[in-house]
Amino acid sequence: MWWAVACLEDFLGNCIGAPSFRYTVFHLAFRCRCRYAWAMDDPSGIERLKTIMARLRDPGGGCPWDIEQTFATIAPYTIEEAYEVADAIERGDMADLKDELGDLLLQVVYHAEMAREDGAFAFDDVVAAISEKMVRRHPHVFGDENVADAAAQTTAWEAKKAEERAKSAAGSDVNGTLAGIARGLPALLRALKLQKRAARVRFDWPDAAGAIHKLREELDEMEAELETPAGIDGARLKDEFGDVLFSLVNVARKLDIDPEEALRHANAKFEARFTYMERALADAGRALDEADLDEMMHHWDAAKAQKKAKKKAKKRVAGP
Prior knowledge:
The protein is an all-alpha fold. It has three domains: about 1-140, Helix Hairpins, CATH 1.10.287.1080; about 185-255, Orthogonal Bundle (Helix Hairpins), CATH 1.10.287.1080; about 260-310, no CATH class. It contains 14 helices and no strands. Helix 2 (about 20-40) packs across helix 3 (about 45-55), helix 3 crosses helix 6 and helix 13 (about 260-285) crosses helix 14 (about 295-320). It is globular and about 60 Å long.
């Protein structure tokens, strides 16, 4: 494609002589169209995706929905796509993972295009920034430093991040140990990050027992709120319930359990058992709204028993 552009440039230069206004306009228009064609002819390159997004956002013929979007309106989709990537990974569905990673990449391109339109930065700046960051945070790979193992690397990584945060916070009102933890994170994840950051300066229980004791204390306080003679104060009850959740995350951290992953697993179990119960009732000619709780719990327990039996069968097949 580019050799065709060069040949036409030479031809026009010979025929017309010095560039005229007409030639300049034609030259620029032709070059832009060739660049678009080159990007669209490359079925797998990032340039094609960037070109598609620019076209979608073009006020002179783009998609009305895409044109009116902002960083704020697109942000929820970005979060949703990240979760769908995690879901595909958990299900082990590689075909779906490929699609979901593409959807997530589109979000990066979308935000970068909006930033380019605002004159803030472009996609290439995003790539350059993360490339520089990865090189900077891996001096044992791209420099002369040595690390003993993965644990030592994690410690070094966190030290580099702390150093970068300190530089970034210099002269700013936002500083301190907990600075830089995004407020837009899901609450469960942000709680975990807050606790990990506090633990680095030894504001932490020495073991899981201390965290479990604190959880029981918070549960007692929530129960006390429920039994208040003056009646339940919704705001205070929500506050106490929040303390319970925060303490539960702390227990998970001390037990080296990812609370988000554990909750996703619990959600999946609930979904599977509920679906089993619903199908069992349907097989018996009963709808959910026709069954009482005892009947539903009978099928729920049957779903649990079936799961346990499958686990035992797998163990027998696997052997000692």
